[in-house]
Amino acid sequence: MPDRRSAFIKSTLILLGTLFLFSHSCKTTDPENGLNGYFSLEQLRADFTQMRNALESNHPDRLRYETAATLAGLFDAADSSLRDGMTEGEFYRVVAPLVARTHCGHTNIRPSDGFSSALGNSARVLPLGIYLDNGRAYVDADYGSQSGIALGSEVLAINNEALPGVVERLLAGISADALNTSAKIHRLNRSFYLYYYYFWGEVPRFDLRVKDASSGVESLVQVNARAYSQVSRDAGSRFPWSGRLALEINGSLAVLTVPSFVIGQNPDYRAFFADAFQRLNNGGVKRLIIDIRRGTTICSRRRPRMPSISRARRWC
Question: pTM, whole model, 2 decimals?
Fold first, then answer.
């Protein structure tokens, strides 16, 4: 019997390594700007075919949520949409939704290193934090927009496109396990400005239709784009990342946060889990939520083992 775990890891590594290999040899009028590099149809087709073959040949469970006919149709249509002179960003917008249809959080793509470096050097993005909740979007942070939009205002449209359509397009291009959307929304709530850039490209000005939370009055507000380096810095200060395990208990409910599966970031994980489950058993906790939305990849040869105390009680 084939080792499904090895096949899964193999497919993941292939996908992460094949996208945008031609970035260093692309035709461009500005070699220093990775955002504006463009590619020949031959280059695009080569990478597209390599990615498709990697998925179809190596992914162990790509047909769990989609039929072979559906995926084939999507890939054929995407292949036909490729054209000579596409930029890396345009190619990403074609490929990312296809990879997301594997419904596998470990099978994803990211722009090339050159694109990411150029993003930090010259890109301009929406300087607002957008928070999605129950199908609606709200401004929850201002990253130097100087727009005067009150925090808590609902965003109804961006550049004449209603928010439900914007969100649908963004969610379709983000990989996550199964049919889960909470992990996708979690990413957007932290980095909406980045994903909007990925899927719409650089926009010098944003026309936002907003509704004031207090008065309910709707208005159209123009927001100028701001440097990505400044916006990402401000956003990063709001969401400092820690790879440490954490347990919070509030009455009969507990939340176990697992931000990383890398043992090196939690070398004392055995002692942590032993103490955590002791606290759970002694504290009368009836419901346990395990938050793994930010979890990074597990190393197959060094996976942490849960202590036996975690199996002594059924958590649901």
Answer: 0.77
